[in-house]
Amino acid sequence: MLTIVVDAMGGDHAPACVIEGTVQALQESCNRFEIILIGQADKVEPLLVDYDVSALNLKFLHASEVVTMEDIPATAVKTKQNSSLVKGLQLCKAKKADAFVSAGNTGAQMAASLFVLGRLPGVLRPTIYAYFPRIKEGLTNIVDVGANVDCKPENLVQFAEMLTIYQRYGAGIDKPVTGLLNIGEEEGKGSEVLKQAYRLLKEADNRGIITFIGNIEGHDILKGNATIVVCDGLVGNTILKFGESIPEFLGTLFKRSLEKLLSSGQFTPDIAALTTRMFKGMFEPFDVEKFGGVPFLGVDGISIVGHGRSSSRAIKNMIYMAEHMIERRVNEHIAEILSEN
Amino acid sequence: MLTIVVDAMGGDHAPACVIEGTVQALQESCNRFEIILIGQADKVEPLLVDYDVSALNLKFLHASEVVTMEDIPATAVKTKQNSSLVKGLQLCKAKKADAFVSAGNTGAQMAASLFVLGRLPGVLRPTIYAYFPRIKEGLTNIVDVGANVDCKPENLVQFAEMLTIYQRYGAGIDKPVTGLLNIGEEEGKGSEVLKQAYRLLKEADNRGIITFIGNIEGHDILKGNATIVVCDGLVGNTILKFGESIPEFLGTLFKRSLEKLLSSGQFTPDIAALTTRMFKGMFEPFDVEKFGGVPFLGVDGISIVGHGRSSSRAIKNMIYMAEHMIERRVNEHIAEILSEN
Asked: In this structure, are B61 and B49 located in the same domain?
């Protein structure tokens, strides 16, 4: 049976939401896996008594320290060896668990995952991706979204390779398609790094490792012709955070419009309620909680990172993502293909 | 009286839309300036007969060649010396006109403006910015949006300085505020270029040339705490094009929702019509046609560039933008402040 470590202390609503999501995952899956919940006993245990955990495959493990959102990643890993983050990852390293899940400090989790678990054979730099809505069915992944700010061409190519493997084996996408985010479609556009990346991506396509459709531009992301959008961490992080701010921005515009129409009598309260429900429904494609979180691609182990504001549903889905990564043997495929390169 | 050269051949709907916008500008402004419309006689003259131009301050000038959207910028400038683009800018250089306006090939206009007009004293690299909607009143400018892909820290600082001058003298913003687009708020985040740019922006703030609020992230753009968002051309171009694609993306989501609600009987056709009108109204902040286009900042002359899909209204407003740039003496202020630096 698989064992998944869940960081009880990670996330804006920890530990309450984490405990709730963990219990839900075990109940919903009928104890399909074992979960080790790790965190500060005085914070977690009083909340655990609210649940009937006797019938669940759940163990609790005390960790005296907590890595906070304010901690500096590289420092936190060294100075907080007794944190749920570091101890949880060490359980995976020692083969006492198969995966680690946290909605805490992303930078610290990246640093700790690299430090404790190391890199898969052949991997230059691990990376982190994000989900984006699209006009076409399904979702698009953008990589990198902040783990690697200055990228070399060979890094960008490996990101595309790793995500192609993830999409093929982990997400069941038959033919993942990679586009290189650039300022124009034509070959030869962009910085020196992008020009070289273009050539290397073409080579990887020729060798059958990826399917490369060339340069794409900002307006192509939501169209979804590429299932993988490759860029450096500065561009990806900016687009990701910009994208995340859109629903709130539009919500504000929506409210302003609605208030005007209500006060001028053009809308009745009934129509306003109907319209509001419709507006909320429109944003379902933006719901990334169904994935909960994403794995760090390229580390020698499974470390799933979630958004700080993760709900219990997101935590639950992160646990399923961990299970999925193990069962689909995504890391084994990455190691095999990248070390052959 | 000011003389503005308008490129009749620039834009997806040229020359018809350009002629219409030019006539509107002269009529609406009561011939406040003189316009030289430049382009191919056989394309323009048959359309001009539809208007009563005898009462307008309008001259037509023949240019036998056309720079198309497909032309490679650097090549077009050299091989198409008889184009409306090159001849129009040469009129400005020869002081026979005060400004040039086009909705044609942006890259070619940038190259031709640099080649024909040259740079203002003290300017390292001219730049181009774009407008973004925001929660707060007014609009935000992003700079650079594609003219400069690989930027040095000193380029980024000059973009902020030039746009501060433009906003202060050209747009009447009392206190332009600059943010540096980065992956995190804290000083020391991001690439080496961004770290150095941060220090130089702080210095420029200390010298009173700009007001710098530090690093901002992707989700801060639409909030509008900064009136100027500084980034390199790759990031800016991607965000700009991504942003431009949002209304269409949401329009598709909206239509899908509406069709479902109509077919399930939850919405009557009347309610659907009301909701559609409301939805369209929500996007008024995205209407950048009220500006028509933007000036290339840093060239020694006034060259206004518009979107390829510019309507006649956008062309009209680009002409007003040209007039504005001349009257507010934005270039003189840029030259004065940057050459003192």
From this structure: yes
Chain A 278-307, CB below 8 Å of chain B: which residues?
278, 281-283, 285
A116 shares its domain with A135: no
Q: Give a three-class secondary structure readout of chain A.
A: CCEEEEECCCCCCCCHHHHHHHHHHHHHCCCCCEEEEEECHHHHHHHHCCCCCCCCCEEEEECCECCCCCCCHHHHHHHCCCEHHHHHHHHHHCCCCCEEEECCCHHHHHHHHHHHHCECCCCCCCECEEEECCCCCCCEEEECCCCCCCCCHHHHHHHHHHHHHHHHHHCCCCCCCEEEECCCCCCCCCCHHHHHHHHHHHHHHHCCCCCEEEEECHHHCCCCCCCEEECCHHHHHHHHHHHHHHHHHHHHHHHHHHHHHHHCCCCCHHHHHHHHHHHHHHCHHHCCCCCCEEECECECCCEEEECCCCCHHHHHHHHHHHHHHHHCCHHHHHHHHHHHC
Q: What is the ipTM of this complex?
A: 0.91
- Which of A218, A257, A275 is opposite residue B241, by nearest beta carbon? A218
Range of the domain at B44: 3-126+296-328
Query: Is A278 in contact with B271 (Cβ distance < 8 A)?
Result: no
Per-residue pLDDT of chain A (341 residues; tens, 9 = 90+): 999 999 999 999 999 999 999 999 999 999 999 999 999 999 999 999 999 999 999 999 999 999 998 898 889 999 999 999 999 999 999 999 999 999 999 999 999 999 999 999 999 999 999 999 888 888 899 999 999 988 999 999 999 999 999 999 999 899 999 999 999 898 888 999 999 999 999 999 999 999 999 999 999 999 999 999 999 999 999 999 999 899 889 999 999 999 999 999 999 999 999 999 999 888 776 677 777 899 999 999 999 999 988 999 999 999 999 999 999 999 999 999 998 87
Give B-chain residues touching A249 at CB under 8 angstroms: 133, 135, 222
Q: Are residues A147 and A166 in the same domain?
A: yes
Q: What is the CATH number of the domain that holds A221?
A: 3.40.50.10750
Question: Would residue B289 count as lying in a domain?
Answer: no
Contact check, Cβ <8 Å, A239/B222: no
For chain A, say whether B194 makes contact (Cβ under 8 Å): yes
CB contact, 8 Å: B208 with chain A? no
